[in-house]
């Protein structure tokens, strides 16, 4: 039987009609048959089998954790002790994690099975998964299309039934956009809700780990287990973690939801996306919620602000990959300077290099204030505006992406064209707010479309409850 949600799966395990061993075997076979998708960079088959039989025993002895037997795929930028991690980059060739990150540690403590690590855009930079050093991932719903990015492998793996849920990281949309392209729930929690310990940093003030799931309940359950304070990440909040999963089915009160006029009339919006968005608005109104059109003057600034700040942070974070400390080292270099230069030149892909150069430039003396300084000020203005809006409204609704999944052979001569795909998702990261993408329909090529709901900081429970009204 195909997996639908954790409670029904758990029931089957407890009744003895299914074992974790059998389920892991079924999934491993399916992964084999789906190798063409290139979703997994590595499958931890023997680990997974061994763990599955231990968990079956725990279930029999009624000592199993809250996620017993849930089969999880992890993005290849999350550290899992004694397993390779590469951020889909050649520069980390051969590198193994020395420790397990907090989010994964907490899932393991509740008896999940980690089935493998998934392909992604190199260092999580991209919206297509075309920037991986290990080749593109195919969208399981249409193999000529991308699954989105950067967490494309995690999305494809779940959409193809090659796990029960998966983890991604979201710096500017990398969970929500692929979720939208593959018909899944994708949650980017509030900044600081989940520890970033063990996540390979791209832009530290934007990055968050989050789940891909098939429904609201599984999203809530995974969030609840991963969230909460952590001494290894000082930006991780100490706020208590609600029992999201326990309350997820409760009826929601009538909400006040804002939509931006600048989004409704946005030039770059695919007509099918626009139609689906309007239909979601109508549906929310019919359920008694208020949906109001508001002005938001910053839409065109979001993508530039995001790319100035994230590349600046990335240029600093990626300085550690120098051919000495980790993974790959260019073989023909002898002098230290040549080791750095050649290793970085050969080890990083084109997009990563572009961003390191851009980030170094915006931080350079003489340009720092004009670019980095102004972008920081703009971030503050946007955040203030959003916080003011969210005093009046419970949520903000947008499409997740301007288009459905695009073709693998898409060629952009200008990289900023692809950057504009992130127009609706980067806002939540700029402001540190939680946002979820929910599958709400299909586009003109019959590929899934997502709608994004964004809320106040730490409003994940209400966010997920209300998001259930979409679709
Ligand atoms: N597409 C965005 C970028 O390339 C988002 C990436 C992410 O969220 N990791 O930066």
Q: Which CATH architecture of the largest domain?
A: Alpha-Beta Complex
Poorly predicted spans: none
CATH class of the largest domain equals Alpha Beta
Instruction: Please report the number of helical segments.
Output: 17
The ordered H/E elements are HHEHEHEHEHEEHHEHHEHHHHEHHEEH
Instruction: Please compute the radius of gyration using only Cα atoms.
Output: 21 Å
**Mean model confidence by pLDDT:** 97
Biggest β-sheet: strands ordered side by side in the sheet: 1-3-2-4-6-5-10-11-9-7-8
How many strand segments? 11
Question: How much of the polypeptide forms β-strand, as a percent range?
Answer: 5-15%
Helix proportion range: 25-40%
| Small molecules in complex | glutamine
Intertermini distance: 24 Å
**CATH topology (level 3) name of the largest domain:** Amidase signature (AS) enzymes
Q: How many separate structural domains?
A: 2
Q: Biggest sheet, open or closed, and with what strands and sense? A: 11 strands, mixed
Going by CATH, the homologous superfamily of the largest domain would be Amidase signature (AS) domain
- Basic shape: globular
């Amino acid at each position: 039987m195909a997996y639908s949600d954790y409670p029904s799966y758990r029931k089957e395990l407890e009744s003895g009609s299914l074992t974790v061993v059998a389920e892991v075997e079924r999934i491993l076979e399916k992964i084999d048959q789906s190798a063409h998708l290139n979703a997994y960079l590595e499958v931890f088959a023997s680990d997974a089998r061994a763990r599955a039989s231990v968990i079956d025993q725990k279930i029999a002895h009624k000592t199993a954790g809250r996620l017993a037997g849930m089969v999880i795929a992890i993005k290849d930028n999350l550290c899992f002790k004694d397993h390779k991690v590469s951020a889909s980059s050649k520069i980390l060739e051969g590198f193994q994690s020395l420790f397990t990150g907090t989010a994964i540690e907490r899932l393991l403590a509740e008896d999940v099975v980690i089935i493998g690590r998934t392909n992604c855009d190199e260092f999580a930079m991209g919206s297509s998964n075309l920037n991986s050093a290990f080749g593109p991932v195919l969208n399981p719903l249409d193999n000529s299309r991308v699954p989105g990015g950067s967490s494309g492998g995690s999305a494809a793996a779940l959409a193809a039934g090659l796990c029960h849920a998966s983890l991604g990281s979201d710096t500017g949309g990398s969970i929500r956009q692929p979720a939208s392209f593959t018909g899944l729930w994708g949650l980017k929690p509030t900044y600081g809700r989940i520890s970033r310990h063990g996540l390979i940093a791209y832009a530290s003030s934007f990055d968050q780990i989050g789940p891909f799931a098939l429904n609201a309940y599984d999203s809530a359950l995974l969030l609840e287990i991963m969230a909460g304070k952590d001494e290894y990440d000082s930006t991780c909040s100490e706020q208590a973690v609600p029992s999201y999963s326990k309350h997820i089915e409760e009826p929601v009160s009538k909400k006040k939801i804002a939509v931006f006029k600048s989004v409704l009339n946005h030039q770059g919006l695919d007509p099918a996306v626009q139609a689906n968005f309007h239909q979601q608005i109508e549906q929310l109104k019919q359920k008694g919620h208020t949906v109001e059109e508001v002005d938001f003057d910053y839409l065109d600034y979001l993508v530039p602000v995001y790319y100035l700040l994230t590349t600046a942070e990335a240029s600093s974070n990626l300085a550690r990959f120098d051919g000495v400390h980790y993974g790959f080292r260019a073989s023909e270099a002898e002098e230290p300077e040549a080791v750095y230069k050649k290793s970085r030149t050969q080890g990083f892909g084109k997009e990563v290099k572009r961003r390191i150069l851009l980030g170094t430039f915006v931080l350079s003396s003489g340009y720092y204030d004009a670019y980095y300084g102004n972008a920081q000020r703009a971030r503050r203005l946007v955040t203030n505006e959003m916080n003011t809006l969210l005093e009046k409204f419970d949520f903000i609704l947008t499409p997740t992406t301007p288009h459905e999944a695009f073709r693998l052979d898409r060629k952009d001569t200008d990289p900023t064209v692809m950057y504009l795909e992130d127009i609706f998702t980067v806002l939540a990261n700029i402001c540190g707010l939680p946002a979820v993408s929910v599958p709400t329909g299909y586009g003109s090529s019959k590929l899934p479309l997502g709608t994004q709901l964004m809320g106040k900081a730490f409003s994940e429970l209400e966010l997920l409850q209300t998001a259930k009204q979409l679709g």
